[in-house]
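Input (J domain-containing protein):
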Amino acid sequence: MSPSDTIQSLQNRRIASKCPSCHQPLTTSIPACTNCWFIAGLPSDISYHELLGLPADTNPFAIDTAALKSNFRRAQQVCHPDSWASKGEGKQDLAHSLSSLVNNAYQRLLKPLARAEYILERNGHPMSEEDKLDDMIFISEVMEAREEIENADNPVLIQAIREENRGKISDIIDEIETLIEAKDWAAVKEATIRLKYLEGIERAAHAHEDAHS
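Output:
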């Protein structure tokens, strides 16, 4: 089988369990074999869950972050560009592309907000800067919390605001997980916008503590 046929075969199978060249087991979902130094690209539409060996059939939001981190480290080891520098023409460039893809996948799946935004995007409901909430009570509460943070001169008050806000973040993350499982995308988007606002409060509180420490 020619190299081009091998690569096409790999792409048709999406994720290979064995190296298409030497047939040794692959240790990750990345088509990079450090036994025979075969490396190939991946289909442009491959999901980040599939790339990092995470199940997404039941609920793509409910992931094992320990497994995510472990799979990420192993994937980066096999496609680190430095390891492919002397392995043949174009292989380091391909390794660099794969490494960047793996890193982006990890960043998008690690944090709940980025993960929810990615899942919405994959299902045809991308977030945009124009997305707004009609819940003026919620918006008022967010504005009040931001104002309290801005005017606070007591670290105890800042800590109290953060603790209350973290409880709200935990609740909305649970809600997003339930809504994604139900595939209620309009409600998922609304809940994700709420999470974005709450994350803004957390960042503001953290910044205030850093500035006054």
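The chain is about 60% helix and 0% strand.
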